[in-house]
Amino acid sequence: MDRTPPEGGRDVVVHATGLRKAYGRGRDRVPVLDGVDLTLRRGEVLALLGPNGAGKTTTVRILSTLVAPDAGRATVAGFDLVRDAARVRERISLTGQQVAIDLRQTGRENLWMMARLAHLPRRAARTRADELLEAFGLTAAAGRQVGTYSGGMRRRLDLAAGLVTRPEVMFLDEPTTGLDPRSRQAMWEVVRDVVAQGTSLFLTTQYLEEADQLADRVALIDGGRVAAAGGPAELKRQVGQVRLELELATTDDAGRVAAALGVPVPGGADARTVRVATDGTLAGVRELLAGVERTGVAPRRWDLRTPTLDDVFLALTGHAARTTTRAGTATGEQTRPAEEVAA
Ligand SMILES: Nc1ncnc2c1ncn2[C@@H]1O[C@H](COP(=O)(O)OP(=O)(O)OP(=O)(O)O)[C@@H](O)[C@H]1O
Ligand SMILES: [Mg+2]
């Protein structure tokens, strides 16, 4: 077996350059990817971050050989995606965005079946199934038909099914969307464990926090391309750590508080909310609050917020995250001008 010499070095397990993809034809043509470049190194976790319709699933489907790109090339686990698709498939696992388990079987049977399909010996299959049922809080429901599970339970079982084996490269498409906080934590723990065993992970997410928790590197997808990439800490540094957000009773109050804090006076529909970046330290926040107090204005409400996906988009691309709602329609969900966040 001759693996394609990995581009970008021996330790690279996914290397994609210039991936393009459009769906439909003629007037119905929807361009989705417009030259995506990505690299995943061995043993690393790469998070592809983007809003609805950005092309995350499309990228994952291309890299896992389910759809062919219109242009560009990629190697996965050392093999060319197009020429050696079968070899790529042997070395990866994919947990898609849609649940793909058998509703008539029990949770335990589903996991056994996945394990047996992955050629695990009978005993190892049982052990692995039980470990995963436990990790995802499904032990009590393991003997029940999946058809009786709640949506979150099905999703957890689906994720467990994708984690039965430890492939060279694992693709997880929005693994925790729709999960409650505890299940999300459980998922993160299992994922860390799989990565610690040597699997490289490519995941997509809409949550900055998830990228921060799991990823060594984050790639932000926007307008069909990777608009920014780097370590999560690096991205957060660019975006700001924590924001103080104050809601005032009147626009006059907002003007006074904004002036005292040295940030632009808010305008438009958001004119009673003042936002200011902090360094995230106690002292820094205390100083800002003291500044607000000195104005004599009492805010209606205030809180500290960690950056959201929208904040990241504003800071790194200068515009709001575009949500592609249907073929070819991109809507900018502009909530506030970029310069306020930068302030
Ligand atoms: N088979 C298809 N035929 C036509 N258009 C498609 C098809 N699959 C995806 N699209 C379009 O491609 C764009 C990107 O879709 P994709 O599923 O890759 O986005 P995503 O980033 O995964 O979004 P989400 O966060 O909602 O899962 C969307 O505008 C979508 O409507
Ligand atoms: Mg998707």
Structural summary, described in words:
With 343 residues, the chain is α/β, with parallel strands linked by helices. The chain has two domains: 12-231, P-loop containing nucleotide triphosphate hydrolases (Rossmann fold, 3-Layer(aba) Sandwich), CATH 3.40.50.300; 237-342, Alpha-Beta Plaits (2-Layer Sandwich). 35% of the residues lie in helices and 26% in strands. The chain has twelve helices and 15 strands. The chain has helices at 56-63, 85-90, 107-117, 122-135, 151-162, 181-196, 208-214, 232-239, 251-261, 282-294, 309-317, 338-342; strands spanning 12-23, 30-41, 45-49, 71-76, 79-80, 92-95, 169-173, 200-205, 217-222, 225-230, 242-247, 273-278, 301-305, 322-326, 329-332. It has a six-stranded mixed beta sheet with strand order 6-7-8-3-9-10, sandwiched between helices. Strands 2-1-4-5 form a four-stranded antiparallel beta sheet. A hairpin with a 2-residue loop joins strand 9 (217-222) and strand 10 (225-230). The longest helix has 16 residues, at 181-196. The model is unreliable at 325-343 (pLDDT under 50). Adenosine-5'-triphosphate binds next to strand 2 and helix 1.
Q: What is the structure about, briefly put?
A:
With 343 residues, the chain is α/β, with parallel strands linked by helices.
List the helices and strands and how they pair.
Layout: E1 12-23, E2 30-41, E3 45-49, H1 56-63, E4 71-76, E5 79-80, H2 85-90, E6 92-95, H3 107-117, H4 122-135, H5 151-162, E7 169-173, H6 181-196, E8 200-205, H7 208-214, E9 217-222, E10 225-230, H8 232-239, E11 242-247, H9 251-261, E12 273-278, H10 282-294, E13 301-305, H11 309-317, E14 322-326, E15 329-332, H12 338-342
Parallel strand pairs: 3-8, 3-9, 6-7, 7-8
Antiparallel strand pairs: 1-2, 1-4, 4-5, 9-10, 11-12, 11-13, 14-15
Bound molecules: adenosine-5'-triphosphate and magnesium ion (MG).
